[in-house]
Design goal:
mainly alpha, 2 domains, two-stranded antiparallel ribbon, 4 helices, 2 strands
Length: about 80
């Protein structure tokens, strides 16, 4: 496909896009401002915060420390809890 054909195809496809976020990403890509993904992202919190492998490991170690200190609730205890 020639460059002119590619431009026409891209132009026609862009005219069908209504998603502002997608259009912004395409514009940034064309302007050389690609969105940088944080290195070593292995998970995302429910609030959208990216967790790197280092931060994920830190969170796991903190949870293990809390468990070792007895700061946990057993499944049995939750099942026997009165939720009324």
């Amino acid at each position: 496909m020639l460059a002119q054909e590619l431009k026409l195809t891209i132009h026609n496809l862009l005219n069908t896009v209504n998603d502002k976020d997608l259009l912004t990403k395409i514009l940034n890509l064309l302007l050389g401002k690609e969105e940088k993904v944080a290195p070593n992202v292995v998970a995302y919190r429910i609030d959208g915060e990216a967790l790197t492998s280092e931060l994920f490991e830190t969170k796991i170690n903190e949870a293990i420390s809390r468990m070792d200190a007895g700061e946990y609730v057993r499944h049995e205890d939750l099942c026997n809890e009165n939720w009324d």
